[in-house]
């Protein structure tokens, strides 16, 4: 593994030692998508090409670390594509829950209590389903109207997808979560609030955890952050136009990125 302040280029690929295991699997982890459908389809096409080149008969595991909704313009299309992947992809897809899915579900349950969601990308999600957001964040009746409109227009498959998201996934020497973990707390005892929302003291923690933590949620540039104890793969696609995939194999990691909005590419899987 690289040093504490190292970052990856889009073409990076290197050994990390014989004990960094994913139990013989070929694993791809994808950072926060945030409604950026066009770039997601481009990255999925890149992954399909990579699998064809190096799969060697292995069934790949594809892990999304959450935050599929909000901020970008096409949440509805993103969720449709992920539902499609669940049903048709020739690999094993696993979908983790992010704090933005948590906020969306809370708003659907009680718009009055969770109306702040509109300030952090909820309005874009509503528009992606052709629902007009409330003009005023504090207009409770407008929130109730928008919630009812969204429930009418959101496919049932999208709701089932959101309600079934996982909080964590562990494989070999790696653990996948959305935001991070609380230092000093065993993985099995981590609470949902930290898994979905934590930044500090997780980000500045300088010691190893039980596993290498692969996470999203926090970004400061279009480059992923690679440290001994954690790998951050959120690269702020809704602002930077860069969506990142991390490839994990036994003793080796790699990284590649899809960039720019452009025209949507077919998912070649």
From TrEMBL:
Residues 27-217 form the Calcineurin-like phosphoesterase domain. Gene3D superfamilies: 3.60.21.10. InterPro entries: Ap4A_hydrolase (IPR050126), Calcineurin-like_PHP (IPR004843), Metallo-depent_PP-like (IPR029052). It comes from the Bacteria. This is Metallophosphoesterase family protein.
């Amino acid at each position: 593994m690289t040093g504490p302040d190292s970052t990856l280029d889009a073409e990076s690929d290197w050994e990390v030692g014989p004990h960094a295991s994913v139990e013989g699997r070929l694993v791809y982890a994808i950072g926060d998508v945030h409604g950026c459908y066009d770039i997601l389809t481009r990255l999925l096409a890149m992954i399909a090409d990579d699998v064809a080149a190096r799969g060697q008969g292995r069934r790949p595991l594809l892990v999304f670390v959450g935050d599929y909704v909000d901020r970008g313009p096409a949440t509805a299309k993103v969720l449709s594509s992920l539902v499609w992947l669940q049903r048709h992809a020739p690999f094993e897809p696993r979908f983790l829950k992010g704090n933005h899915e948590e906020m969306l579900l809370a708003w659907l349950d009680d718009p009055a209590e969770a109306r702040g969601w509109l300030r952090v990308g909820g309005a874009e999600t509503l528009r992606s389903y052709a629902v007009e957001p409330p003009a005023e964040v504090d207009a409770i009746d407008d929130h109730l109207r928008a919630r009812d409109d969204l429930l009418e227009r959101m496919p049932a498959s999208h709701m089932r997808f959101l309600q079934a998201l996982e909080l964590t996934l562990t494989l070999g020497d790696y653990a996948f979560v959305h935001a991070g973990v609380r230092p000093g707390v065993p993985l099995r005892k981590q609470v949902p609030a930290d898994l979905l929302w934590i930044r500090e003291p997780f980000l500045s923690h300088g010691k190893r955890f039980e596993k290498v933590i692969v996470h999203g949620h926090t970004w400061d540039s279009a480059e992923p952050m690679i440290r001994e104890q954690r790998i951050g793969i959120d690269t702020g696609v809704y602002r930077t136009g860069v969506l990142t995939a991390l490839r994990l194999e036994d003793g080796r990691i790699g990284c590649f990125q899809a960039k720019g909005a452009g025209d949507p590419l077919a998912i070649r899987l």
